[in-house]
Fold:
Amino acid sequence: MAEHREYFYRRLHSLLGVVPIGLFLINHLVVNHFAVYGEESFNKAASFMHNLPFVLALEIFVIYLPILFHAILGVYIVFVAKNNVRRYGFFRNWLFYLQRITGIITLVFIAWHVFETRVQVALGASLDYSLMEGILTNPVMFWFYVIGVLSAVFHFSNGLWGFLVSWGFAQSPRSQKIVTYATLLVFLVVSYIGIRTLITFAYGV
Ligand code: HEM
Structure:
């Protein structure tokens, strides 16, 4: 019975990593990318998202609760669960470890990021271009954000590979190879979108 429950939680953990957390990550980075087209574009896009109907309920059920569940079980998997690390070849074994390391880095990054954006907005700061500009013109914070964004995007893209294999969408060696290239492309494109935005906030270009 306990095994059934653990299996169910692991499946839910896997699904939530893609829907909704992964989709939210992509949406978040694409909306922020409006900064590249100027301050006004970013402010419009951010206030559109902020003024969506039922925004608090959406945030709680589509973002906070799924991330909380995924993160708590994720920390358990990294530090407590027995992992069968020898089931893949050399390359996949490394990616398996990187998946865990980037999970922990992403957790630290998201906690700090939510504190200095969402929590500050709730305490009265205004959600606009200058909030992020103020944070990212500090070189230490800029590099912290670069590492945090790359870590989150890697974790999502490599996780997508694991998701597609473990849910049975890519079973043959050939389809797993195609999925490797596809998820590498996802990593490169989404990383570009995220890092390009950080450069605009930090250097105004
Ligand atoms: C931006 C936030 C995050 C996204 C988009 C995300 C996405 C994903 C995805 C898609 C998977 C693959 C699921 C699968 O293997 O079937 C995954 C796995 C995993 N995630 Fe996350 N995740 C995020 C944050 C976190 C955090 C904060 C932790 C905390 C440590 C974490 C820990 C893990 C672990 C340990 C796995 C591997 C699970 C396994 O091998 O069974 N993730 N994640």
In short: The pocket of protoporphyrin IX containing FE is lined by residues 10, 14, 17-18, 21-22, 25, 70-71, 74-75, 77-78, 99-100, 103-104, 106-107, 152, 155-156, 159-160, 162-163, 166 (CB under 6 Å). Residues 85 and 93 are 6 Å apart (CA to CA). The helical segments are 2-32, 39-50, 55-79, 90-122, 129-136, 139-166, 173-203. The chain has a mean pLDDT of 95.
